[in-house]
Automatic annotation (TrEMBL):
Organism annotation: Kwoniella newhampshirensis
Coiled-coil residue windows: none
Name of the protein in question: Phytanoyl-CoA dioxygenase
Pfam families the record matches: PhyH
SUPFAM superfamilies the UniProt entry points to: Clavaminate synthase-like
PANTHER family: EXPRESSED PROTEIN, PHYTANOYL-COA HYDROXYLASE
Length: 306
């Protein structure tokens, strides 16, 4: 079997040769919470097809730290979840009047703090119970249809395919649904890796980042710092994705994707990642889910299943 270093070299060659059919890296104008990310600082995260074997996906995870898998779930199933979410929060006024909820078009208000969810609770102005969007999004997190989506068998079966030795694969109850508003300041997820937050158990869980709707590169989906599985890390690392990649990452690039409804991105518990800022010119809200899977028959951080 080739060494990890050789696999990383092969992966680097693959990233240089694979090109997206619809986007050129040099044309993208991406942003982090701190600054712009130019074409020299990014590379494509090449997706795997829907019929990729569990062995192929696991090999990507163990050698590259991340695997973007196409079509894990039916597209319409995911779009139905997107519609339910935005129908739930629509009374807050977050959507542009007269638009279809499934499109998730932002109303355009300059003060985006009016439309934060549980993940942004610390930035809400005034009492949380007086923030209509926060209350509606909080209710959505515990709605039966949201829980059903998090636990859907398409994802559970994918986890089982990747880890066939798991006796009882399940999705931990503490899931996170994030809605990133277009052009909102400071909303990009900072640089981090997951195990520091689930350190109450071994690093054997599997994270699935799920775009709930199409998420092109401009919408600030997750991005992964190439070849960082073996880097020493300390949890939440920086708000500045550009500076971190340059100063700590030794010039490593951020791997980005063009994610579609139905895709899932699985990543290793030590893979360093962040998100971009949503700069979608059509004003679409980026909705996504952070889900963690584990084997109930083995050790895991039980705090995340409460």
């Amino acid at each position: 079997m080739p060494s990890i270093s050789q696999i990383q070299k092969d992966a680097a060659v693959e990233r240089e040769t694979w090109q997206h059919p619809n986007y050129k890296l040099s044309d993208l104008k991406l942003e982090s919470s701190v600054g712009s990310i130019d074409g020299s600082q990014i590379a494509w995260l090449k997706p795997l097809p829907a019929d990729a074997s569990g062995e192929e996906i696991l090999r990507e995870l163990e050698t590259k730290g991340v695997a973007h898998v196409k079509g894990v779930m039916p597209r319409e199933y995911v779009l139905d979840m997107r519609r339910k979410w935005f129908e739930q929060v629509a009374p807050s006024g977050v959507l542009k009047e007269g638009t279809d909820p499934v499109d998730g078009i932002y109303c355009g208000k300059e003060d985006t703090t009016e439309f934060l969810g549980p993940e942004g609770a610390a930035f809400i102005k005034g009492p949380r119970e007086e923030n209509a969007h926060f209350m509606l999004a909080t209710e959505a997190h515990s709605a039966p249809w949201a829980r059903e989506f998090a636990e859907n068998q398409y994802l559970v079966n994918a986890a089982k395919r990747i880890h066939p030795q798991w006796k009882d694969p399940f999705c931990m109850r503490r899931q996170i649904f994030r809605s990133n508003l277009p052009f909102a300041k400071g909303t990009a997820t900072g640089v981090h890796y997951d195990h520091i937050f689930l350190r109450g158990g071994p690093p054997t869980f599997l994270t699935a980042w799920v775009p709930i709707g199409d998420c092109n590169p401009n919408q600030g989906g997750l991005m992964y710092l190439e070849d960082t599985l073996e880097m020493a890390a300390q949890g939440f690392l920086s708000r500045d994705a550009v500076g971190y990649a340059r100063e700590v990452g030794g010039g490593r690039r951020w791997l980005i994707g063009d994610y579609e409804a139905g895709d899932a991105v699985f990543h290793h518990s030590f893979m360093i990642h962040a998100s971009g800022r949503n700069v979608d010119p059509e004003g679409r809200i980026r909705l996504s889910a952070d889900l963690r899977f584990a084997d109930r028959a083995a050790a895991y951080d039980r705090r995340w299943d409460k």
